[in-house]
Amino acid sequence: MSDFFVHYPIHDSGPPITNKKPATESSSRGANDRHPISLADQIFLQMPKEIVGKIIEPTHVPMMAGVSNATRQKIKDDRIEFELTVEQLKVHLGPERLFESLTAAVNTYTFIKLEFSKFRITQEWVQALSNVVAHCASLKYLDLCECRIGNAGIQALEAAWANCALLEHVNLSLNNIGPQGGSCLATLLTHCTALVHLDLKNNRLESDGITSMANVTGENLRLSYLDLEGNKLDDDAGYDLERLLYHFPGITHLNLTRNLLEDEAVACLARVFKRCERLKHLSLRWNGIQTKGAGILANALKKTKTLENFSIGRNYIQGNGVALLCTSLGKLPVLKIVDFEMCAMKDMGLFLALPELTKFKALESLNLAVNDLYASIESLCEELVKFNTLEKLNLSNNRIVLKDVEHLLHALIQSPRLQSIYLHNNKKANEISTAKTHLQEELTLTRNTRMDARGNLYNVTDV
User: What is the DSSP string of 281-329?
Assistant: First the structure.
């Protein structure tokens, strides 16, 4: 949130300037002496517009700067809850006074949201941050994305989690949290039983960090979103990932992209996936999974009836692995998005997978980019008309030449619901041929695309 009631400079004492009729010098000075503006009130006067609860009168924004003491007291009595973004406060108060001001504010007002995103919190201030969070008993949303708090920061916060029983959303991504922070995250998961969303991507937890996190006690049926992308998790983390996920059977979104997981870790995950009956989004992109791991996943996911989005792109599962997955995934009733980018399918893999792909019940988006499918385009075009639900197809980086574009365009128009085919970055392959076969570097075919007798592509809406 970016809109704040900031229409005046911050004063150390004395009321802010309002639109009221100017008072005499003596009366103005007397008012200042009687009603100094505390740090807590300075925080309040910069509250964002989107507050939880009914906004107090008057609603005219500039007049909020002149809120009376009686009105402030009413807010305290009614315990109206506020959402606070730090970006504006640090501009006006400076980092030195920020936590001092917040400490005063949390003792006066009730906060349900604190957003510190991209605010550099040095080791000097991590304890102050912990004190602020610990005093926010009603806190539901905490965003510390890219604050670079490190292990010292997460260890300081450990003592605060016990006072945050209502916390639902925590973003700790891009904070350089290492294996030593794993036990602190286990404390978070143990105490914050209302937690729904936990984002830990792009840290460096590694296998030891997951081992510590897996020591969480109890079962959290509410946690539905867990992001562990880019944490250098390898096969040694497989068993502990299984232990960790066992505590969260209600998981719906699981992101394990850009790790080092191989077939052994996949075998561990497969066992716990059978327990995750609500799983909707699963990403295993950019790991080290091969054909054997794909077969294990295929067997584990065939009963995951809620799965809507599955991504295993940039893994060397080859054509056989893709075919095994398609056989199982095709039976899922609501699967809409499938990503097989750069899976080393090649022509044989597409040949094996196509009959199963056409059986998908709800497939809307299919990514087959970077798979060397240039020799199979005609076969693909013949099958495209059988896709009853497909709307988007990505064939970028497949060395497709212009003569195949005509076949694809015809199939697109003839298909029941297909709206677009992405053919980006096929230029290099076409440079091998004659100049007339060059494709645009970023080419997307739609139902409005046409090709003239010379092979030039144009949009019918442009004519």
Answer: EEE--SS--BHHHHHHHHHHHTT-TT--EEE--SSB-HHHHHHHHHHHH
